[in-house]
Design goal:
mainly alpha
Length: about 70
């Protein structure tokens, strides 16, 4: 089981975190596209899974901002 931690951010800090996650997400999505173009299925899966995890974290942060 993953260890859970609690962090406290201001709304501005949470927005900065979302922006950073969006930038990181773009990199993984680009890497998945490159891997797909090169026929590297293992890397496509790895980068796609990483992108999905980043999206999930970003969405949780955004939900906390909006609530």
């Amino acid at each position: 089981m993953d260890k859970k931690i609690t962090l406290t951010f201001t709304e501005d800090e949470a927005e900065i975190l979302c922006d950073a996650l969006d930038t990181d997400l773009e990199g993984y999505e680009d890497s998945a596209k490159d891997a797909r173009a090169n026929g590297n299925r293992a890397d496509v899966q790895t980068f796609t899974e990483a992108a999905d995890r980043i999206k999930a974290v970003r969405d949780r942060v955004r939900k906390a901002i909006d609530s």
